[in-house]
TrEMBL record:
PANTHER family for this protein: EXOCYST COMPLEX COMPONENT 6, SEC15
Organism from which the protein derives: Camellia sinensis
Native organism taxonomy: Eukaryota, Viridiplantae, Streptophyta, Embryophyta, Tracheophyta
Gene Ontology annotations of biological process type: Golgi to plasma membrane transport; intracellular protein transport; vesicle tethering involved in exocytosis
Name of the protein in question: Exocyst complex component EXOC6/Sec15 N-terminal domain-containing protein
The Exocyst complex component EXOC6/Sec15 N-terminal domain, residue ranges: 51-220
Pfam family of the protein (one): EXOC6_Sec15_N
Any one Gene Ontology cellular component term annotated for this protein: exocyst
Length: 428
């Protein structure tokens, strides 16, 4: 193994300058194309082929010498490579064993992981189901409250509950069937509330019309008492002035005047009307209720302005005028307290209608009267009517003017009665 092989020698035949140039070009990795082309152009390709073979043989000798020089290192490298292969096989065996054990442990862990993921999925679904169930329960509780409010005729809380459902819960109801059912029922419930409230208003309209006469009579009675107090005050003043002029001592006088709040005396309940207007406002249809109220009150006024055909006007005039007074006292209270339900222009229109009808009725009835006392009786009550309604801001000049127009007839009837009395006295 330690004996070195003999170096082979190559006969240097043809080792010319051209061979050296060719060997140098090949060693430098340069392009041999120009040289090959030149050889064929010169007609000497055999010489080039001979040179190439010589270069090849020379390289083979160099390779053989290089292998002989590094023979021992090559053998050692091969031995080391075989050792590496053995180590690699052992490492591969260990890796296979470790992988098997890892697969055994990992399989059980994967099963546990699958169970854990399934548990998480179940937990998520259960949590979502509980959340949705709570939403449904909350909505159903509100629906029950709404139904209870409606059954107890507490419509405003019912509407507030419906509004709460629409704003905060309706779009978040997870069950589509329940959501669609509630969406369908809400307009029906609102319509039901509107009808019930309107029915209550109709009952109130009937009630207020039946009590308008009492309201008017009470107000006119207080106007009569006020006139009586004024007359007593004037009488006391005149008496005091007469005593003062006759040189007597000053006559002190006092008159107890009780201030009366007519709003507290004339008690009538507007609560159903206010509640109905508020409910219609919550429903978003206040204009509809305003029109409804105004039209119905106009119809009632038209009916109130019809005088009785079965009873003489002398007997029915107080009821007729008291009914009108009560009507407009109620409308004044509605105008002041109902928050826009009635407009001042609407009240003015109703009042103008009433004035036109009352003046027409009075003119006709005065023209048919043939007794001065009857005219005086009606005029007195009309005067009290004017004094009563003037306190509420109504213009009563047109009505009182009719009394001035009847003055001439009153004087004629009074003169006729005096003549008749004188004639009767002379005849007896």
């Amino acid at each position: 193994m330690n004996a070195k092989p003999k170096r082979r020698t190559v006969k240097e035949n043809g080792d010319t300058g051209e061979d050296l140039v060719l060997a140098t070009l090949i060693g430098n990795g340069e392009d041999l194309g120009p040289m090959v082309k030149h050889a064929f152009e010169m007609g000497r390709p055999e010489a080039l082929l001979h040179q190439l073979k010589f270069v090849v043989k020379k390289k083979e000798v160099e390779i053989e010498e290089l292998c002989k020089l590094h023979y021992e290192e090559f053998i050692l490298a091969v031995d080391e490579l075989r050792g590496v292969l053995v180590d690699a096989e052992e490492l591969k065996s260990e890796l296979a064993s470790d992988n098997f054990r890892l697969q055994e442990v990992g399989s059980s862990l994967l099963l546990k992981l699958d169970e854990l993921l399934q548990s998480y999925s179940i937990k998520k679904n259960v949590t979502e189901a509980i959340k949705r169930s709570r939403n449904c329960v909350q909505v159903l509780d509100l629906c029950v409250k709404c139904n209870n409010h409606i059954s107890e005729l507490r419509f405003y809380p019912a509407l507030k509950t419906i509004d709460l459902i629409e704003k905060n819960y309706l779009q978040n109801i997870p069950v589509k069937t329940l959501r669609m059912l509630i969406e369908e029922r809400i307009p029906i419930i609102k319509s039901h509330i509107e009808k019930k409230v309107t029915s209550q208003v109709n009952e109130w309209l009937v009630l207020i019309r039946s009590t308008a006469k009492d309201i008017g009579q009470t107000a006119i009675k207080y106007a009569a008492l006020a006139r009586q107090r004024d007359e007593e005050t004037l009488a006391c003043q005149r008496k005091a002035e007469e005593q003062s002029c006759s040189g007597l001592e000053d006559f002190p006088y006092t008159l107890d005047v009780e201030e009366i709040d007519e709003d507290s005396v004339l008690k009538f309940d507007l609560t159903p009307l206010h509640r109905a207007y508020h409910i219609h406002t919550c429903l978003g249809i206040p204009e509809k209720f305003r029109d409804y109220y105004y039209k119905n009150r106009l119809l009632q006024l038209s009916s109130d302005l019809q005088i009785s055909s079965t009873q003489p006007f002398l007997e029915s005039h107080q009821t007729f005028l008291a009914q009108i007074a009560g009507y407009f006292i109620v409308e004044d209270r509605v105008l002041r307290t109902a928050g826009g339900l009635l407009l001042a222009s609407q009240v003015e229109t109703m009042w103008e209608t009433a004035v036109a009808k009352v003046t027409s009725v009075l003119e006709e009835q005065f023209s048919h009267m043939d007794t001065a006392s009857h005219i005086l009786l009606v005029k007195d009550y009309v005067t009290l009517l004017g004094a009563t309604l003037r306190q509420y801001g109504y213009e009563v000049g047109s009505i009182l003017e009719i009394l001035n127009h009847s003055r001439e007839k009153y004087h004629e009837l009074l003169l006729t009665e005096c003549r008749q009395q004188i004639t009767d006295i002379l005849a007896n």
